[in-house]
Design brief:
Blueprint (H helix, E strand, L loop, with lengths): L2 E5 L9 E8 L5 E8 L4 E6 L9 H12 L3 E5 L16 H17 L3 E8 L1 H12 L5 E5 L9 H5 L3 H8 L1 E5 L5 E6 H8 L3 H5 L7 E7 L8 H9 L3 E6 L10 H16 L1
Parallel strand pairs: 4-5, 4-6, 6-7, 7-10, 10-11
Antiparallel strand pairs: 1-2, 2-3, 3-5, 8-9
C-alpha cells in the first residue's frame, strides 16, 4: 500500500507524536488519517460515522484516552469524507469496510498489530461488516451501530422514499435551509437495505471478541438495536450507558472507560 506520513497538528496528548498518514485504498483513492504514535506495537483504528470525519469530538476523545494508556491510535476519513479522496456515497458499507482493510494492511505491513477496530454509528456497522468479511482483527467495538437497516431511512429521506427512488433513480437530500447535502442513488439505497446485520454477525470468527456500547437515551438509533446484536453475536459483551444520547454528549468518560477497558482486556 502506498503511503506517506509527516508530523501534523498539535497533539491532543502532548507526550504523543501525531503523524499525518496517507494510505491508498484498493480503488486508488488517498485515505487521510492521523497516527497517534506511542511507540506501542499495538494500533487501534477508529472509524467515524455518517457524514462525519476523523476529527469528530468523540473520535478525538477516544484517541486521547487510548494513548494515555500507551496504545497507539489511527483515526482516518473514509473515502468521500473529510480530507480523503473520492465521492461521498450514502450506504457504502462494503466500500468503507474495504477502506478499513487497506488501513489494516498498511499497518500490518509495518509489522504493527491491529489490537482493535472501533466504529461509531455507521462506523459501528462498518467494523461489523469488516469482521464478517475479513477475519484478521481479534477485537471489534461497535459504538451505537444500527442493527435494523430498514429503520432511520424514512426519517432522512421521507416516508415515500421508495416511490421517489423508483420514479427518479435518485433522491437529493437537503438541509433545513434547502441546500443540497448529499445524493442517494437507487444502488446505494438498495445496498443499505441488503445489509443484513443478523446474517453478517453469524460470519464472525468464534475467537473475535465484540463489544457493543449504546446510550439508553439514543434518539437516532434506538437502544433496542444493541440488544439485538447481543442476541446474535456469540462472543459478545453489551454495555449500556444510562442516559447517554447518540454522541455521548454528557457521558464521554463513561463511553471511553467502557471501550478502553474492553480493549485492554483483549490486549492482555
Amino acid at each position: 500500500m502506498a503511503a506517506q506520513s509527516s508530523p501534523t497538528e498539535k497533539p491532543l496528548n502532548s507526550d504523543v507524536e501525531q503523524q499525518r498518514v496517507i494510505i491508498k485504498n484498493k480503488y486508488g483513492e488517498s485515505l487521510v488519517g492521523v497516527l497517534h504514535e506511542t511507540g506501542s506495537t499495538q494500533v487501534v483504528i477508529l472509524c467515524h460515522g455518517f457524514q462525519s470525519t476523523k476529527d469528530f469530538r468523540m473520535i478525538r476523545n477516544l484517541a486521547e484516552v487510548l494513548t494515555n494508556q500507551g496504545i497507539s491510535v489511527f483515526r482516518f476519513d473514509f473515502s468521500g469524507n473529510g480530507e480523503s479522496e473520492g465521492t461521498f456515497q450514502y450506504g457504502n458499507y462494503i466500500k468503507e469496510a474495504d477502506d478499513l482493510h487497506s488501513v489494516v494492511q498498511h499497518f500490518s505491513a509495518m509489522k504493527r498489530v491491529i489490537g482493535a477496530i472501533v466504529g461509531h454509528s455507521k462506523g459501528g456497522d462498518v467494523v461489523l461488516v469488516y469482521a464478517s468479511k475479513y477475519h484478521d482483527v481479534p477485537t471489534v467495538v461497535n459504538v451505537s451501530g444500527r442493527y435494523n437497516m430498514e429503520r432511520g431511512i424514512a426519517e432522512r429521506l421521507g416516508k415515500d422514499y421508495m416511490e421517489r427512488i423508483e420514479e427518479n433513480g435518485i433522491i437529493d437530500v437537503k438541509d433545513k435551509e434547502g441546500n443540497d447535502q448529499y445524493r442517494v442513488t437507487k444502488d446505494s439505497l438498495m445496498e443499505r437495505l441488503a445489509t443484513h446485520m443478523h446474517s453478517l454477525c453469524l460470519l464472525f470468527e468464534k475467537d473475535c471478541r465484540v463489544l457493543t456500547v449504546h446510550g439508553s437515551a439514543d434518539e437516532i438509533i434506538p437502544v433496542e438495536d444493541a440488544f439485538e446484536f447481543a442476541k446474535v453475536i456469540a462472543n459478545h459483551k453489551l454495555h449500556i450507558v444510562e442516559g447517554a444520547d447518540h454522541c455521548y454528549t454528557k457521558y464521554p468518560s463513561e463511553l471511553a472507560d467502557a471501550v478502553v477497558d474492553f480493549i485492554q482486556e483483549s490486549l492482555h
